[in-house]
Amino acid sequence: MKYLLRVIALMCLAPLVFGAVAKTFVMDAPTARENGDALALSEIEEYAVKCGIGAGGPYDIFLFSQPSTGSATETIVSNQVFPAGTYFCIATDTDTDGIESGVSNEIFFTVERCEATDCRPLPPVLQIVL
Q1: pTM over 0.70
Q2: Which residue from 28, 44, 96, 129 has the least number of CB within 10 angstroms?
Q3: d(CA 87, CA 81)
Q4: CATH 3.40.50.720 matches 6-111
């Protein structure tokens, strides 16, 4: 059975400019399966967050997975470094039988400057004037 997961918020210590700042994802744990059957917190094995550069996916940047703490609200912190740009993220959870849920609602964040220590500027534009 698949699970429902709702990503509540993406918070950071500096608004929309992440640099080396951790990204904190906060999620409400699902309480039911998609068919309506009850779901105990102990049945959730882990959570995963995946991101992409376009709204609606593909979500081909795998951020991380984290074992469930058994809490009704899960907090996951990532120190992943991102190049400048806007990123769209979803979350999934996996139950103790290894069945992955569908995707959560999509959230997004923007990195306004390069986070990597070796970021280089764009090359100059070369022209020949005869």
Answers
A1: no
A2: 129
A3: 12
A4: no
